[in-house]
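Design a sequence for this backbone.
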């Protein structure tokens, strides 16, 4: 199979349930634009934003986070990988697990 035909076939393959690769890449491009806009707003306004991705292990969180953050500045966005909750964390309020990772005053 030549490269053009192979590339066309690959673009029609699905990337997850019901989402074709071409659709996925178009949606990802739009999300990149929105994230860069958010990044610029955060810098301009001096605000802080926290986004939490939580799913069970093996659900593809790492790939999604990597795909979304590849176009933003690591000086503005920080990714924190967390292990599964401990028994103590499971007994606490949900948000307590994340609070130590939130930026404090004067820190991005």
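Sequence:
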């Amino acid at each position: 199979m030549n490269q053009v035909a192979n590339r066309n076939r690959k673009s029609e393959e699905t990337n997850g349930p019901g989402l074709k690769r071409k659709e996925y890449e178009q949606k990802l491009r739009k999300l990149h634009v929105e994230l860069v806009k958010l990044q610029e707003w955060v810098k301009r306004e001096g605000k802080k934003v926290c986004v939490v991705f939580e799913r069970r292990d093996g659900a593809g969180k790492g790939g999604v986070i990597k795909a979304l953050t590849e176009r933003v500045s690591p000086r503005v966005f920080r990714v924190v990988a967390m292990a599964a909750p401990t028994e103590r964390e499971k007994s606490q309020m949900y948000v307590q697990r994340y609070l130590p990772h939130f930026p404090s005053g004067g820190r991005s």
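The chain has one domain: 3-101.
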